[in-house]
Design brief:
By secondary structure, the protein is mostly helical. It has nine helices and four strands, in the order αββαααααββααα. Helix 4 runs antiparallel to helix 8. The two termini are 101 Å apart.
Length: 403
C-alpha cells in the first residue's frame, strides 16, 4: 500500500500537478497489518455434561459463563432441606449398626445368655404341649369309633323301644279282645283270636331266639379278635414295657428337628433306641392299645345286645304264656267281668301311649346322633386350632433360638 502510494505521487508530480506535503509519504520497509471482520458461533472444542447425584432444587450457582474453574471446585449447590434429615437418619442407622457390631464382637453377657436359655426352654415346653394337644385332637378327629358307638346305641334303643311298642300294642289288642269276650261271652271266634295271638307270640319268640344265636356267634368272633389284640399288645408290653410319654415327646421333637438318629432313649425294659425308633415304638404300642380297646368296646356292645336279646326272649315267653293261659281260661272258666276287662284295656292303652312316647324320643335321639356323626365341623375347628397353636409355638421356639 505504501509503495503504491509512492508511485501515484511520482506520476502526479511529473504531470505538473502539485501534491501537498501532507500527502507525501516516504517509502520504507515495515509491518503491514490486515484485519478481517466477520460473524459466527463460538464453539468449545470439548464439553462435559455435569449433574448431581440426586434431584432437587438449585440453591446456589457459584460460577458464571466463561469462568475458568479448577478440579474439585464447587460449581453449584442443591437445597439440602429435604436431604439433611435423610443424612441424619442414615448416620443414626450407621451408629446403631456400629453399636450392634460392637455388641456382637463383645459377645452376650452371662445374664443375657441365661435369659435367652430360659426363654428357649419355656418356648420348647409350650411347643411340646401344643404338639401333644394337636396329636390328641388328631386322634379324636380320626377316631370315629365313639361316634359310631353313639349311633349304634341310639339305633339299639330305637329297636328296643319299637319292640316294646309292638308288645304294648299286642297287649292292648289282647285287652280289647278280653273286653269283647266279657261283653258277649266265650265263643268260637274268641278262641280263634287267642289262637292267632298265641301263634304271633310264638313267632316273636322264635325270632328273638334266632337273634340271640346270631349275636352269640358275633360275640365269639369279636372275643377272638379281642384275644388276638390282647396278645399283640402283651408282646409289645413285654418287649418295651410302658413307654414314657415325656420321653416320646422329646424323641418326637428331635425327629421334627431332623435329628431322628439322636441316641440316649431307652425303654423300661432296657432297650436302647434312637429318637426315630422310640417314636415308631411309641406309635406302634399306642396303635396296638387302641386296637385292643376297640375290640373290647365291640365285645361289650355285643354283650349288651345279647342281654337285650335275653330280655326280649323273656318278654316273648311271658306273652306266650299269658296268651296260653287266656286260651285255657276261655275254654274252662267263665269270662272276665266287663269292669275288669275295661280296666285292663285302659291300662294297656296307657302302656301303648308310654311306649309310643319312648319310641319317638329314641327316634329323635338317633337322628341327633347321626347328625353329629356326619357333621365334623366342630372337630375340624378344634384340629385347626391345635395346628395353629403348634405353628405359633414353633415360631416362639425359632425366635427364642435367634436371641
Amino acid at each position: 500500500m505504501v509503495v503504491g502510494a509512492g508511485t501515484v505521487a511520482w506520476r502526479m508530480t511529473h504531470a505538473g500537478v502539485t501534491i501537498p506535503a501532507s500527502d507525501l509519504y516516504t517509502v520504507r520497509y515495515g509491518t503491514v497489518t490486515q484485519t478481517v471482520a466477520t460473524t459466527g458461533t463460538l464453539q468449545a472444542p470439548k464439553q462435559v455434561a455435569l449433574s448431581f447425584l440426586a434431584s432437587g432444587q438449585l440453591k446456589a450457582l457459584d460460577v458464571s459463563v466463561g469462568q475458568h474453574v479448577q478440579a474439585g471446585q464447587t460449581l453449584a449447590q442443591l437445597n439440602d432441606a429435604t436431604i439433611a434429615p435423610q443424612v441424619a437418619q442414615a448416620q443414626a442407622q450407621l451408629a446403631s449398626a456400629q453399636a450392634a457390631l460392637q455388641k456382637a464382637e463383645e459377645g452376650p453377657t452371662p445374664q443375657a445368655v441365661a435369659v435367652a436359655q430360659a426363654n428357649l426352654q419355656h418356648a420348647q415346653v409350650v411347643l411340646q404341649g401344643a404338639q401333644q394337644q394337636y396329636q390328641d385332637e388328631q386322634a379324636i378327629f380320626n377316631d370315629r369309633l365313639s361316634a359310631q358307638q353313639s349311633v349304634q346305641q341310639a339305633q339299639d334303643q330305637v329297636n328296643q323301644d319299637a319292640a316294646a311298642l309292638q308288645a304294648a300294642e299286642v297287649g292292648l289288642a289282647k285287652a280289647q279282645n278280653a273286653l269283647q269276650q266279657a261283653q258277649v261271652g266265650v265263643n268260637t271266634s274268641a278262641l280263634n283270636s287267642i289262637s292267632y295271638t298265641i301263634q304271633q307270640d310264638q313267632d316273636l319268640l322264635t325270632a328273638a331266639e334266632q337273634q340271640l344265636s346270631n349275636d352269640q356267634q358275633t360275640l365269639a368272633a369279636e372275643q377272638a379278635d379281642e384275644t388276638a389284640a390282647q396278645n399283640v399288645y402283651n408282646e409289645y408290653l413285654t418287649l418295651w414295657g410302658n413307654l414314657d410319654p415325656n420321653t416320646y415327646a422329646q424323641a418326637q421333637a428331635d425327629v421334627a428337628e431332623g435329628n431322628g438318629a439322636a441316641t440316649g432313649f431307652s425303654t423300661s425294659t432296657g432297650v436302647s433306641m434312637t429318637a426315630q425308633q422310640y417314636v415308631t415304638a411309641y406309635t406302634t404300642d399306642s396303635g396296638a392299645l387302641s386296637q385292643l380297646q376297640s375290640a373290647q368296646q365291640l365285645v361289650a356292645k355285643t354283650q349288651q345286645a345279647i342281654d337285650a336279646d335275653y330280655a326280649q326272649i323273656q318278654q316273648a315267653q311271658a306273652n306266650l304264656t299269658n296268651a296260653q293261659n287266656q286260651q285255657a281260661n276261655l275254654a274252662q272258666m267263665n269270662p272276665l267281668t266287663v269292669q275288669a276287662a275295661q280296666i285292663a284295656v285302659q291300662q294297656a292303652q296307657a302302656s301303648v301311649n308310654q311306649a309310643q312316647a319312648a319310641y319317638q324320643a329314641a327316634e329323635n335321639g338317633l337322628a341327633l346322633a347321626q347328625q353329629l356323626y356326619n357333621d365334623r365341623t366342630a372337630a375340624q375347628a378344634q384340629l385347626d386350632q391345635a395346628a395353629n397353636a403348634v405353628a405359633q409355638a414353633q415360631n416362639g421356639v425359632t425366635q427364642a433360638q435367634a436371641q
